[in-house]
């Protein structure tokens, strides 16, 4: 193992020590090494999806029929009915491809479901629900005629608590996110719909994600413009945090990967040959295609050679106020091939990568036509019935004869269940569950119905519940169940008197609830919230619209104050230890059944089983180890936006554990209406083929990376018991402490396995945790391989990252 301190500048940059900003030499991380040529796909099966070789043969046979111009069609977005489109080619019977956002709904479509956000999904720690959510999303996309689901999200991972899109993804822990990625992808693709893992890579903030001018001018961004922020990341951090969940995605057989907007070590994500040709297509053996994010392509030949296979949205009128946006591909790519600048073999590989998943998932046979009323897009894309483009899609037989197809089936059942499973109870002094209370108050503006209409898109919000956040990852609701509505329905059945005030301003004015709520309710349920959206990072971790003041005011007047927060991530909740705050439930972004999900938990019909997928610290400054402040010293410097990932591996609980900082609510924590115990002894067994642990064989290109890193090498068992009076689901978690030889700055412990187990009162079950070689490895920046350090490995099994019930170890 090369000691971290001695390693010189290497590939993605040098590693000095992984500890602290003081050792960071910015100049070592500002260039990204060239990796060329772009590797050709070869049709290797992924562990999660077989049949790539036969599909590649079909793709090759199909490719042989195409003219040069027709090949380019597969690489360039075109006008059509969806948010992204590959145009039909009727001459060869190709009906086009419809790409839709993702990741929690068909964003703008009617008669589609809005599922819980990625954050809520991660907070469930429930593989089965993750999988089912993916499958149902896939079914809805298919039913609407969309071959391509633009999700799931592993970037942002959640380096900064302030990042606007963290909730679209899962968790700042790469292991938990990796599990959610593979379950979602396998679920989606089981329905014959392609999944797109996004955004590759190190996309951890919205601020300056795009170069100045990209979205407000009809010119191609030039070197004179202020460029996107550069995420400057050293190699070990890149692999152990940011690449990790994408490796799960590739291994699951994901069809496509979307490149990010920003720069990585100085080079745009859509033309960064190290991350595309190098890490993604060579090291991870990715066999599918890389599509750009929308208007995130900043070079033609440069991006093609660096590994980008498809540019989106291509050449079309993206929004009514944009004039034609010239495409880097399209006619320009045709010319580049004709004049020999780009080899036709590279174009062929791009097309094969696009076509292979299409054939593999059977999309050439019997795929439903596109719902011609796909929300705002037909109009926004100037895709009107009289247009040439409409005629093309129509004559290719690509449009469904029926509009407004209802694809929701019985998915609201899962949405309700997962919405509840993703809520985390962090405090309960016996206040919950409610049992036929005589009189309750519902307070706070997050309890009411949505006020800005059913489509959140990019608009900000008004008073009202936030079932999900905003931007391209939002959804158009057919139905939202607001908390007050669901509580009223329940109260009616129970004969409970419900008083309510939803106006936050009233709730913080003098007198508070005292004068307005009478008689004194048995419980005051306070609903507070914090908005988050694509396009802007959060300005603070405070609750919105005076949420904290509302809670404090209510708590002054009500000795049984139960707080429900509704937000896309961490918040500062200074009142959490207030004696009158008797329970706190973090509801996250649970989707369209919000009210029903929360009632299920509040009344105990569902025992809370969510666990924190992040750390909740005391104050905002506690999170500043990964702040979104970039060194913009000179605003006229086009290269001014730099974000140095100086914290290296130490994000979220890795930071708080490393510096031994106390936090009120740690990663993996969550209460239940019962209690669980874990045996204080665990068994550790090497798996028979695990003999050679010291270093793994040279990388091969199987999807997901070197197959040796995925081999199971240890099995750990523990016994978990329900010691309380009601049935519930425990979430035993296993954390690995790497030996000292893993180097300074290695996290104290890292999640490497978990399970979710239902237990009746008194019931006991044995849980088996499986550890792969990757789970025990670090990324060795010298050998450019995963490598198992030697020494003693600590095995910590517990009910949260800090509630460790059993410790043991093994030595390699
Ligand atoms: C931009 C977003 O970053 C991406 O996630 C989305 O899929 C595309 N726009 C298309 O809406």
Automatic annotation (TrEMBL):
InterPro entries: Cellulose_deg_GH3 (IPR050288), Fn3-like (IPR026891), GH (IPR017853), Glyco_hydro_3_C (IPR002772), Glyco_hydro_3_C_sf (IPR036881), Glyco_hydro_3_N (IPR001764), Glyco_hydro_3_N_sf (IPR036962), Ig-like_fold (IPR013783). Residues 730-801 form the Fibronectin type III-like domain. Keywords: Carbohydrate metabolism, Glycoprotein, Glycosidase, Hydrolase, Polysaccharide degradation, Secreted, Signal. It catalyses: Hydrolysis of terminal, non-reducing beta-D-glucosyl residues with release of beta-D-glucose. It holds the Pfam family Fn3-like. It is an enzyme of class 3 (hydrolase). Its EC number is 3.2.1.21. Pathway: Glycan metabolism; cellulose degradation. Residues 1-20 form the signal peptide. GO terms for molecular function: hydrolase activity. It comes from the Eukaryota. It is found in: Secreted. Belongs to the glycosyl hydrolase 3 family. PANTHER family: BETA-GLUCOSIDASE, BETA-GLUCOSIDASE G-RELATED. Beta-glucosidases are one of a number of cellulolytic enzymes involved in the degradation of cellulosic biomass. Catalyzes the last step releasing glucose from the inhibitory cellobiose. This is Probable beta-glucosidase G. It comes from Phyllosticta citribraziliensis. The lineage of its organism: Eukaryota, Fungi, Dikarya, Ascomycota, Pezizomycotina.
């Amino acid at each position: 193992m090369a000691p971290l301190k001695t390693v010189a500048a290497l590939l993605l940059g040098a590693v000095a020590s992984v500890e602290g900003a003081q050792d960071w030499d910015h100049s070592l991380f500002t260039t990204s090494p060239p990796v060329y040529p772009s590797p050709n796909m070869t049709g290797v099966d992924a562990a999660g999806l077989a049949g790539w070789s036969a599909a590649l043969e079909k793709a090759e046979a199909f490719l042989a029929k195409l003219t040069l111009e027709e090949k380019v069609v597969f690489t360039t977005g075109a006008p059509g009915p969806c948010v992204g489109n590959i145009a039909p080619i009727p001459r060869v019977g190709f009906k086009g491809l419809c790409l839709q956002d993702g990741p929690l709904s068909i964003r703008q479509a009617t008669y589609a479901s809005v599922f819980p956000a990625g954050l809520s999904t991660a907070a469930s720690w429930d593989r089965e629900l993750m999988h089912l959510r993916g499958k149902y999303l896939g079914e809805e996309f298919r039913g609407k005629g969309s071959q391509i689901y633009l999700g799931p999200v592993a970037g942002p991972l959640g380096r900064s608590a302030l990042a606007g899109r963290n909730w679209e993804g899962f968790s700042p822990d790469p292991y938990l996110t990796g599990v959610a990625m593979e379950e979602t992808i396998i679920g989606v693709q089981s329905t014959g719909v392609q999944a797109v893992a996004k955004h590759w890579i190190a996309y951890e903030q919205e601020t300056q994600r795009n170069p100045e001018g990209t979205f407000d001018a009809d010119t191609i961004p030039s070197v004179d413009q202020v460029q996107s922020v550069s995420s400057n990341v050293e190699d070990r951090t890149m692999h152990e945090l940011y690449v990790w969940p994408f490796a799960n995605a590739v291994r699951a057989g994901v069809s496509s990967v979307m490149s990010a907007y920003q720069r990585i070590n100085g080079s745009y994500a859509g033309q960064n040959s190290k991350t595309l040709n190098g890490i993604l297509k060579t090291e991870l053996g990715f066999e599918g295609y890389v599509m750009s994010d929308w208007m995130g392509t900043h070079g033609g030949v440069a991006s093609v050679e660096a590994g980008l296979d498809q540019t989106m949205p291509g050449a079309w009128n993206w929004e009514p106020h944009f004039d034609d946006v010239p495409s880097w591909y399209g006619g320009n790519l045709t010319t580049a091939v004709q004049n020999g600048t780009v080899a036709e073999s590279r174009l062929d590989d791009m097309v094969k990568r696009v076509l292979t998943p299409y054939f593999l998932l059977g999309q050439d046979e019997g795929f439903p036509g596109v719902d011609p009323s796909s929300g705002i897009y037909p109009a926004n894309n100037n895709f009107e019935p009289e247009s040439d483009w409409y005629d093309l899609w129509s004559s290719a037989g690509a449009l469904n004869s029926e509009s407004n197809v209802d694809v929701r089936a019985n998915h609201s059942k899962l949405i309700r269940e997962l919405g509840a499973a993703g809520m985390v109870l962090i405090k309960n002094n016996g206040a919950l569950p409610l049992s036929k209370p005589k009189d309750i108050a519902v307070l706070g503006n997050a309890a009411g119905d949505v006020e800005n209409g059913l489509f959140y898109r990019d608009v900000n919000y008004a008073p009202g519940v936030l079932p999900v956040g905003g931007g391209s990852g939002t959804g158009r609701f057919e139905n939202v169940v607001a908390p007050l509505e669901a509580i009223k329905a329940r109260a009616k059945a129970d004969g409970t008197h419900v008083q309510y005030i939803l106006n936050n301003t009233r709730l913080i004015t003098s007198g508070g609830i005292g004068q307005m709520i009478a008689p004194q309710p048995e419980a005051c349920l306070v609903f507070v919230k914090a908005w988050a959206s694509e396009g802007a990072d959060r300005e603070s971790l405070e609750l919105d619209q005076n949420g904290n003041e509302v809670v404090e005011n209510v708590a002054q007047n009500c000795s049984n104050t139960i707080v429900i927060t509704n937000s896309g991530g961490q918040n500062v909740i200074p009142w959490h230890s207030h004696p009158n705050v008797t329970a706190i439930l973090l509801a996250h972004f649970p989707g369209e059944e919000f009210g029903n999900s929360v009632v299920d938990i509040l009344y105990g019909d569902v025992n809370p089983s969510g666990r924190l997928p992040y750390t909740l610290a005391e104050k905002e400054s506690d999170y500043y180890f990964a702040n979104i402040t970039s060194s913009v010293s000179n605003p006229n410097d086009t290269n001014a936006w730099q974000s140095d990932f100086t914290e290296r591996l130490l994000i979220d609980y890795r930071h708080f554990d490393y510096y031994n900082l106390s936090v009120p609510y740690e990663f993996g924590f969550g209460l239940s209406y019962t209690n669980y115990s874990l045996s204080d002894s665990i068994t550790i067994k090497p798996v028979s083929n695990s003999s050679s642990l010291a270093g793994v064989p040279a990388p091969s290109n199987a999807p997901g990376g070197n197959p040796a890193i995925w081999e199971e090498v240890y099995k750990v068992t523990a016994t978990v018991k329900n010691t309380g009076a009601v049935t519930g689901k425990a979430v035993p978690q296993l954390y690995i402490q790497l030996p000292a030889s893993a180097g300074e700055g290695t996290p104290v412990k890292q999640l490497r396995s978990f399970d979710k187990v239902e237990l009746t009162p008194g019931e006991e079950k044995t849980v088996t945790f499986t550890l792969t070689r990757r789970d025990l490895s670090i990324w060795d920046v010298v050998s450019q391989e995963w490598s198992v350090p030697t020494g003693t490995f600590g095995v910590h099994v517990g009910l949260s990252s800090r509630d460790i019930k059993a410790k043991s170890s093994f030595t390699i």
